[in-house]
Each structure stands twice: as structure tokens, then as C-alpha cells.
Specification:
- The chain has 15 helices and 14 strands.
- The protein is of the alpha/beta class.
- The protein folds into three domains: 85 residues, Rossmann fold (3-Layer(aba) Sandwich), CATH 3.40.50; 159 residues, Rossmann fold (3-Layer(aba) Sandwich), CATH 3.40.50.720; 81 residues, Ribosomal Protein S8, Chain: A, domain 1.
- The strands form three sheets. The chain has a six-stranded parallel sheet, sandwiched between helices.
- Helix 4 runs parallel beside helix 5, helix 4 packs across helix 12 and helix 12 packs across helix 15.
- The longest helix has 19 residues.
- The termini are far apart.
Length: 379
């Protein structure tokens, strides 16, 4: 059995070698020659999996270590007997952490009290549902919009895009990229929809670049009517430089790049291959995940802080999105390099928080926000 793997998938080397001939290739540079005699392709979003790569190959399974699968021509694969699997929800905690950091940064930059604002979450799947919970923990009014789920479950608890745009101070997008079908999302936020957003509203896009019409957004930013936080872009890895300059926060498609999200994505991929081919790896998970330079212990002096302030401080302490923003602004041409050499980031679940002079409510809020261990200490 031969497996061709994207060489940027972490934690994977050495795992499948006892059971197969494993070849590692750059995802963007994988060729038909590389896969012609392969049985399995393990990939990420940079490998376009369709007839131009796979026609005439021996590939019978594609496993992508990502939530998204718009890089896979699923219809063509079905017609040619190629099974495909993705890793749904693997980096949902990471993207939620990204949104949390963006909210904290925008709150500080513009002196915004998040408790007085309305957050609109478009797409309430694995990622969006966590963002909804985050918004509520931050004291925000949260409106949820998910037409496919609304159609399946009924209208209770959901609002339409019109209400999201007219009522929300911050709108964050968490939808898949669908070019066709009942719920297309290409340019879901086009010129008309962007124009219907509240003056001064903030748009956060960490889903797919094509979900937002970049030219229309550029016009709104030029007029100073909207603000934007963009992790994903049309024409990646070559983001529009003027659009970058007018956004508040810009990053190179790394919202889901926590070490925890990567580990889970790789694990889900290995397990899927194991189940399909009868390998003894159905429960595999990386033995260890590295920590950030600053370690995984946080201490917060909560004596003079409110519960809301403690939560904001804790979230800010796990990840500062402005560090990624600074790297991309300094070297926009390094978009792909920055993705491939991303520093270790851990999600709140990996952290132990020591609260000094805190009360039980503060600890409970941090636990609900996903922090791994919270300890109250009295001085």
C-alpha cells in the first residue's frame, strides 16, 4: 500500500510507515506522477483533488486533515469510486480562539464594551456554535443565522441575513464554501449585503475568502463605513494589498492553526485510514503536543476585576492575533511561508489558570470558556 502525504501535516511522520510505503510531498506541488500508483492521498486545502491530479491514478481514498473540503471534487470522486473524508470540527476551538482574540483587540482599540453590542454569527456548525457560546459568555447579545439548519430544525432560534446585517455591531462568518446548491455561499456578503450592514459594524471572516466580495468590501472600507478582520482572502496566497491596508486585522489563513486543532485533524485523518484499511490505529492521537514559549500556566490577580474583565484577560493571555497581523503586514509575500512555519499556539483547554482573590463565579465562567483547569488561590 502506498500513501502520499502533504509534508506540512504535523504529527504524521512515522505513524503510518509500519503499514505502508509513505511519501511526503508539498501539497501545492503534488503531481499526477506522484499519485499514479498511490492508494491513499492525505492532504490539506492546497492540493486540488480532481481529474487533473487523479485521473488514471490508483488512489481510492482521500483524507483531508481539515474541516473544509472545497479543494476536493466530490462529484468526480464519487463517479470514479474514490472515497473521501474530512475532519469536521477539528479546529473549531482554534477558530473560536481567533475570534475571541479579535473581539478583545477590537474592544481595546475602539473602547468598545462588548456587553453593549450585538454579535451576529453566520453559520452555526462546529465552529459557529462555539462562537455563539463565547459571545454569550462575554455578555453580548447573540443572533444566529444558519439557513440550512433553520430549514432542518425549524425557525426557532435563528434569524435571517437581513436581520444580521441591520441589527449586529459585529458579524462573524463560519460557513462552508458552496458554489452551487440550495445554499450557495460564494459572495454571500456581496455589495448589496455589505451595504445593508450597520454603519461602523465590524466584519470578521475566518471561513473562506470567496464568501465575501473583496472589491465591494474594499469600497466600504475606503468610505470608512465598515471595519474588517480578515483571515481568509480571495486569490490566496496573494491578498489584495490595498484591502489589507484598510483592514483592522489581517492574517494568512491561520485561524484554525492551533497545535490542538492540527493534532486533532491529523488524528481524525489517521483514524479514518485505519478504519478503512484495518490498521491498529483507530484510537491514535499524538503522544505529545508542544507548548508555547511562555508555557501553559496563567496567573490572574482578580482582586479588583469584574468577571467580564477576568474572562477577557484570560482569553487575551492565550493568543494575541496582532502578532500574526504584524507578521503578515511586514511581509505580505510570505503568506504561505507564515502558514507553513506557524508558531505554536495552544487553545484555552491546554491552560491552567490560577485566580488570585477570585470568587467561584469567575472560575465557573473560565471553565465554561473551555480553560483546562482553574484554581482559586487566596493570598
Amino acid at each position: 500500500m502506498k500513501i502520499v502525504c502533504d509534508d506540512r501535516i504535523p504529527f504524521l511522520r512515522g505513524v503510518l510507515e509500519p503499514y505502508a510505503d509513505v511519501i511526503y510531498k508539498s501539497g501545492a506541488e503534488t503531481t499526477p506522477e506522484d499519485v499514479k500508483d498511490a492508494d491513499i492521498l492525505i492532504t490539506r486545502t492546497r492540493t486540488r483533488c480532481g481529474p487533473s491530479l487523479l485521473d488514471g491514478s490508483g488512489v481510492r481514498m482521500i483524507a483531508t486533515a481539515t474541516i473544509g473540503f472545497d479543494h476536493i471534487d466530490t462529484e468526480w470522486c464519487a463517479l470514479h469510486g474514490i472515497e473521501w473524508v474530512n475532519a469536521p470540527g477539528c479546529n473549531s476551538g482554534s477558530v473560536c480562539q481567533y475570534v475571541a482574540s479579535a473581539l478583545c483587540c477590537m474592544s481595546a482599540r475602539y473602547s468598545l464594551d462588548l456587553r453593549k453590542l450585538t454579535l451576529g454569527v453566520v453559520g452555526v456548525g462546529n465552529v459557529g456554535s462555539k462562537v455563539v457560546r463565547l459571545g454569550r459568555l462575554l455578555g453580548m447579545k447573540v443572533l444566529s443565522c444558519d439557513p440550512p439548519r433553520e430549514a432542518l430544525e425549524g425557525g426557532e432560534g435563528y434569524v435571517g441575513l437581513e436581520e444580521i446585517c441591520s441589527c449586529c455591531d459585529i458579524v462573524t462568518l463560519h460557513v462552508p464554501l458552496n458554489a452551487e446548491g440550495a445554499y450557495p455561499t460564494v459572495h454571500l456578503f456581496d455589495g448589496k449585503r455589505l451595504a445593508s450592514m450597520k454603519d461602523g459594524a465590524i466584519l470578521i471572516n475566518s471561513s473562506r475568502g470567496l464568501v465575501v466580495d473583496g472589491k465591494a468590501l474594499l469600497g466600504e472600507l475606503r468610505r470608512g463605513r465598515l471595519r474588517a478582520v480578515l483571515d481568509v482572502w480571495e486569490n490566496e496566497p496573494f491578498p489584495d494589498r490595498e484591502l489589507m491596508s484598510l483592514c483592522d486585522i489581517v492574517t494568512p489563513h491561520i485561524a484554525g492553526y492551533s497545535a490542538d486543532g492540527k493534532a486533532l485533524g491529523t488524528a481524525m485523518t489517521v483514524r479514518a485510514v485505519s478504519r478503512r484499511y484495518g490498521l491498529p490505529l483507530d484510537d491514535w492521537y499524538p503522544v505529545s503536543i508542544p507548548g508555547p514559549e511562555g508555557g501553559l500556566d496563567l496567573t490572574i490577580d482578580a482582586g479588583s476585576m469584574s468577571c467580564h474583565e477576568v474572562l477577557m484577560r484570560a482569553l487575551e493571555s492565550t493568543y494575541d492575533v496582532l502578532s500574526d497581523d504584524a507578521r503578515l503586514r511586514y511581509e505580505p509575500s510570505g503568506f504561505e511561508y507564515q502558514r507553513g512555519h506557524y508558531p505554536v499556539r495552544r487553545e484555552p483547554s491546554a491552560y491552567t489558570v490560577q485566580l488570585l482573590d477570585a470568587d467561584a463565579e469567575m472560575a465557573e465562567v473560565l471553565e465554561k470558556a473551555g480553560f483546562g483547569k482553574v484554581v482559586i488561590r487566596v493570598r
